Structure formats: C-alpha cells, structure tokens
Amino acid sequence: MACFFRKNIASKLAKIFGQPEDSFISAVSTIPVSKKQQSSDFRLSVSHLRQKGFLPSAEDIQTQAESLARQLNRDSVVDDVTVGRAVINFKIKRDVLAEKILEQVSKEGHMFGLKSALLCGQQKGRTLVEFSSPNIAKKFHAGHLRSTIIGNFISNLKEALGNDVVRINYLGDWGLQFGMLGAGFQDYGSQEELKANPLQHLFEVYVRVNAEAEKDEGVRRRAGEFFRQLESGEEEALALWRHFREISVGEYQRIYQRLGICFHEYSGESLHQKQALDVLQRLRVQGLLRTTEKGTGVVDLAAAGDPSCLATVLRSDGTSLYITRDLAAAIDRKEAYDFDEMIYVTDKSQEGHFGQVFQILRAMGHQWADSCCHVPFGLVRGMKTRKGDVVFLEDVLEEAKGRVLRNMQATRTSKELEDPDMTAERVGVAALIVQDFRGPLESDYSFDWGRVLQTQGDTGVFLQYTHSRLCSLMRMHGSGQWGLLDPALLQEEQGAAVLKQLLRYDEALLQCSCDLQPKHLVNFLLALSHLVAVGLRTLPVKGSPPPLAQARLRLFDSARTVLANGMRILGVTPVEKM
Ligand code: ARG
C-alpha cells in the first residue's frame, strides 16, 4: 500500500532523472512512527541514489540533497518536502493519507500489503518447510515446540507472499529407540493404556525400559535384537512399529490442530532407510566415500572448504546414520516436489549437521543444495508446567489455557463468553508465540509464565486484547455498512500515527521474508496495538457527530483488519471477545 505514495515520489524522481519509476521505489522508505511524533512520513535516501549511480558519489552529499529537494515539488499528495542529513523527507497530506489507506484496506482485506511492489521479488515458487519433527516415544520438548511455531510462521509467511508451500514433518521414527520400545512393550506394554493415552504410555514404556537396560544386559540384547528384526524387515516387529507410529501421528495431528497447524506430509527417518543405502552407493561410485581404519565410512569435506571436517555417513556395522538419511530425504524430496527452496527449522545445535548435509549434496553434484537453508533457534530455559518439566506439547497448551482461564475468571470476563475454553486457548497460544518470537530466533531465553501472560506490555495477550477491544467497538457502533468517508475528519496526529503504522506493514513483511525472523512482524503488531490504545483513548467514537464517528470507526476497523492479518501469519487466531 505504501505503494501509492512511494510511487508518487518515485515518479517525481523518474522525471528528474529520466529513468523508469521502478528504479526508485526501494530508495523511498517510511519513517517509523515514534513517540515524539515526526511530521514527515517518507524518506528518500540520497546515498541510495549515489549507490545506484543516479548521482555522482564524488560530490558533497548534503549539497546534492538540497538541490534535489528544490526540484521536488509539493502536489496534491505531498504536503511538504524538507531536507535532513543525506535524506529528503516528505509529508503526505493528512486527508490523502487517510483516504488512500482506508480505501486500500477495505478493498484488499486479508490481501492488504501483500501486493505491494516491495514484495514482488519475494515469490520463490515452491517452498518446502520441514518443521516440528518430534521423535516418537521421546519427549516433545521446548525445542520441538519452537520448531513447530517457527516453521508454521515461515510457512504462513511464504504462503501469504504467494509461494506454493509444502509443510513436512520429519519424524524421528527409526533407530535403536524402537528396539527399546519393542522390547519394553513386550514386558510392560498395555493395549488399553496405549489406546487411552498413546503418547503418555509409549513414553512411560520407553523411560522404564531405558532404566532397565542400564542395569540389565539381557534387556539391552533384546532391544538390539528387536531393532535388528525391524532393519531386516520382519513383519511381526514391523507391525508393532507401524502401530506405534500410526497412533502417535494420530495424536500429533489432533494436537497440531489445536494450534491450527496441518502438515502435507508426515515423513520420517524410517522412510529413507533404503534410499540411504543408495546414497552410500552413489558416494562410493563418485569416489567421495572413504573407509577409515575403524571401518566407518566418511566423506572428506576439506575440499569443500571445511578443513576440520570428516562427515561420518556409514557405521562400521554397515548401517546408516542420521546424516545419511537426511541426504536421502533431501534427494527424495527434490525428486518428489521439485522445490525451488527448502527450509529446515531446528535448534542451533544442528547447524553443523545441516552445513554438512548441504556440502555433501553439492559435492555429489546437486547444485540445488544452494536453495536449501537451515533456520536455527536457541534454547528455552525453564519451561515448566505444574506437572514439572515439559514432556508433551499438550501439557504446555493445557497449562497456558488453564492460566488464562484463571485470569479471566478473576476478572469475571469468562462468564460472558460463548466458549471460554476456546478463547483461553487462543489467548494462551498467542502468549506463547509472541514471547517466543520477540527476539532474534538464535537467542536463548528463560521462560516465565507470569511475564508471558501479562495483559499490558508487549505480550500476545495484549495483541489479543487489542483485537477484541476493536471488535467490541465494531459490535457496538458498526452497522456493517460504511457511509461516505470524509477523510478530512481524520487530521489528528493520533489517527495519522495509526495510519502511518499501517503503511509500514509491507516493510515489516519484507524484513521477515529477507531473514525469516518473526520479530519484525511481532514488533510491528505490538507497536500498532500501542498506537491503537492511544487512539481509542483520544479519538472517541461514542458521542461524536455521525460523520466523525464514522471516519474514526473506519480507522479502527482498518487497524483491526491489519492486526488480524498479521496475527494469523504469526500463527495466532485472533479472538473477538475476551
Ligand atoms: N527429530 C529431530 C530431533 O528431534 C529433528 C529432525 C530435524 N530434521 C532433519 N531433517 N534432520 O532432533
């Protein structure tokens, strides 16, 4: 949307320099809305013009700025042109600002901002996003929760920008842990408990058999034997494994649904056992595989620029490793989906692993490895529920919901809600997501329920609260139909501040798209919510003459639309009452 104004300024420059308008779009940016209200809205960077060769770099930049500003006239859109340090500032006429933005939001709705010229380079075609990827029978720890919400955000963002997104969950569904589970289930498994509470039961069996195996050599042997049966494809063992996998996936699906997340494919390490052997064969043929004295197979990555690296891809007993299966899985996906880019979301401890995966793929001649990337994130410390350490995703959701529900009961709002549980859950999830997305993904952080759930301040609860306040304003005063808008009635700086923030939405999305960090969008939405709070305080609807009330309602409704759009991209379902 900033488009219209950017275009206006770019077209002036196009005339001056005799170059196409498009070459100037990126030189113009919005000026952040700050506490001490700025009177200008857009800024043209003169150094950008020098970098692009439109102005000679040898001359004094300030003189260039001043002489260029003299040629940039005011018109029906631009109210004022001023010179800053190496920049030229533009102030847009307040009524044009209001008219254009409100018109655009109501015309484009959920597409607002997404068609901006700034974003047109962000379409990459088909994007594969691999995320969540828990290990069956093991803990679903905070790292998996982070991967789940970050991967969902990246998928939503890519989709919003017009990419064809494929969401893949790559389960830890193979390995000695299934030998343990198989052996353990024979001893302490119960079909009834498995049916009643599958994840819990599998986890219990797994913990117990591990403890036994520590003490008992016999248990270890039986676990090894069970895994060998799986590897050699013995039907009885496989049937039990399949059963464990199916019920676990069923449970995962149910819980992901609570987060509004759906995967196109549940793949996993098990599916790439055979292909991993093909990869080894190819590596051998290509002369990339070396056998060490210990009998393991390694790929020497020194030639690829990493002198310290020998990647082990084959155990001495002939079995494949995690990395071998990842190589196979990547090649498989390229064949199945012919993706244009692939994104893996895991904690940062796996950075080295993915670096090696991509390097080996390249060494094998798969140049498309350049279109693969790993998005790493940091650790969460101290995420606990009343039951103690987090073991299951569902416990976190229950805890968040329970706490929000108690807060709502304390303020007695829950009685007025149709479905307090659902509302509490949505507010709780928003709280978790915003807390997690506020900083750079790579940073570690300490988790604190008290801080996460604050109503005021920079939390997901605050975003939900703002959205529901705006909805309630519409319920009270909106007729569902807009009369003629008189934009001249929206001259106050508090209103202009909200409008200017809406103008920045495409820039926030662009930043997210460039570095895949959700913090830009989170901070945008928090800032918008703070501006809305000021607006709601200072620009009353109730008691104002109808045309003014109408104009203000339009303004708040536009803010509500953009807030909801942004929240959805984050993976938050906005609530209408809370
Ligand atoms: N299951 C793994 C874990 O919990 C994450 C899988 C990441 N994806 C991959 N392609 N290796 O650590």
From TrEMBL:
Enzyme class per UniProt: ligase
The EC number(s) this enzyme carries: 6.1.1.19
Keywords, in A-Z order: Aminoacyl-tRNA synthetase, ATP-binding, Ligase, Nucleotide-binding, Protein biosynthesis
Any one Pfam family match given in the protein's UniProt record, by short name: DALR_1
Secretion signal span: none
MF (Gene Ontology): arginine-tRNA ligase activity; ATP binding
Catalytic activity: tRNA(Arg) + L-arginine + ATP = L-arginyl-tRNA(Arg) + AMP + diphosphate
Keyword Protease part of the UniProt annotation: no
This protein's GO CC annotations: mitochondrion
A Gene Ontology BP annotation from the UniProt entry: mitochondrial translation
Residues of the DALR anticodon binding domain: 463-578
Domain of life: Eukaryota
Gene3D superfamilies: Arginyl tRNA synthetase N-terminal domain, HUPs, Isoleucyl-tRNA Synthetase, Domain 1
Function: Catalyzes the attachment of arginine to tRNA(Arg) in a two-step reaction: arginine is first activated by ATP to form Arg-AMP and then transferred to the acceptor end of tRNA(Arg).
PANTHER family cross-referenced by the UniProt entry: ARGININE--TRNA LIGASE, MITOCHONDRIAL-RELATED, ARGINYL-TRNA SYNTHETASE
Alphabetical list of NCBIfam families matching this protein: argS
Family: Belongs to the class-I aminoacyl-tRNA synthetase family.
UniProt protein name: Probable arginine--tRNA ligase, mitochondrial
Organism placement in taxonomy: Eukaryota, Metazoa, Chordata, Craniata, Vertebrata
